[in-house]
Amino acid sequence: MEIPFKTKRMLNFGDCDISGTAYFPSYLNILNGVNEEFWLHLGFPWHKIIWEERWGTPTVHISSDFSSPSFFGEELEFEVTVQRVGRSSVTLHHEINCKGQKRWSSTQVLAASNLDEHTSIPWPDDVKEALLACIQEDKT
Question: Cα separation of 94 and 81, whole Å?
Fold first, then answer.
């Protein structure tokens, strides 16, 4: 599995304000799509875990830093790194670049949640194993 997980997203017209600059709330929607793709890459597609297994991965904390504006028509490059895996949470770090320039970054905590009871649950063993496999070892 490629670590960190990488994908790209086009910045569409609807993601921007009237000047063509990315509208920051749209970034969160785009990030949600990147997360969905990340989970699919791990082998846990949201449509299956949500509808069949009845658990999900809601965001319980997110922080973002915006370095440079992005504009309509640009292709953003996303790198997703797993920083920490807990009993029922995972901390993801997102680096977003365009043409070699950092645009923004975000650190996000997701929690495993029973969708019927709205309570946290421990990660299923196979999910926890997949998440742990994504943690980059410090090579220093």
Answer: 7
Q: What is the pLDDT of residues 83-99, one digit of tens each?
A: 999 999 999 999 999 99
Model pTM score? 0.92
pLDDT digits (tens, 9 = 90+) for 30-55: 999 999 999 999 999 999 999 999 99
* DSSP code at position 134: T
The residue type of 135 is: I
Lateral strand order in the sheet of 113-114:
55-56, 113-114, 119-120
Domains along the chain with CATH numbers: 5-137 (3.10.129.10)
| 98's tokens | 């365009």
Query: How far is the C-alpha of 139 from the C-alpha of 107, rounded, in Å?
Result: 21
